[in-house]
Amino acid sequence: MRKKIIAGNWKMNTDINSGLELAKTINESLKNLVFNSKEYGVVIAPPFTHLYAVSKVIDNKFIQLSAQNIADNEKGAFTGEVSVDMIKSAGATATILGHSERRTYYGENSSTLSKKLNLAIKNNILPIFCIGEILAEREKEIHFNVVEKQVSEVLFNLTVEDFSKVVIAYEPVWAIGTGKVATPEQAQEMHEFIRNLIEKKYSKNIAQYTTILYGGSCSPSNAEGLFSKPDIDGGLIGGASLKAEDFLKLIEIRLKH
Ligand code: PGA
Known about the structure:
The protein is 43% helix and 15% strand. By secondary structure, the protein is of the alpha/beta class. It has an 8-stranded parallel beta barrel with strand order 1-2-3-4-5-6-7-8, surrounded by 5 helices. Strand 3, helix 3 (84-89) and strand 4 form a beta-alpha-beta unit. The radius of gyration is 17 Å and the shape is globular. Bound molecules: 2-phosphoglycolic acid (PGA). Residues 9, 171, 176-177, 215-218, 236-240 line the site of 2-phosphoglycolic acid.
């Protein structure tokens, strides 16, 4: 069965000291929660600068360390970029890719993202690949088309073997950081749609095996409804991942279902 995951996207928050404190607190508390790490996963994605230090204070039996992005080239004259090899040597085993903030503010498109995705997979780094529509697209009722395009232009170029190494995060852009969460029905409808696309492209087995996370203002106050839906396998959490108490509550809610 597919893995249920709670992933924390810290974005550009915390300095190294406060990030280490947060990571340590989460790590300590997870020791008291009994869960099967084959069925459930916890991921944290601190800023690049924290990765190495955080990797030394977390137990990778409980927590998978993720970057928030990687460069679309392996190495060379790309000032300011961070390569997949670098995050790997800093202790990360996963990376978020295609977050809407990267797409909107840094112009990441399907062709850049295909390169990044291939580099992550080639290097055994788990990609958490983000997709989702903006408000105007939902209002025009073209959200299904938008998501289908995002999935087929990048993910569906993968072989079945490589596709099975990807986690998808559906994050409606209008819900990110706005406090305006998608209803469990809206999210379930889209997750089911994505799963059906995967079934058509690959197979029923692969569709059932793929982890699809929801992201966008997910918090302990609304997670119960979301995580009880059959196609919502967990969450990519921004704001609420910065408070250990909220993040742990979300993990506990996930473990209940
Ligand atoms: P949010 O962010 O939980 O703060 O809305 C989610 C995300 O951007 O991944």
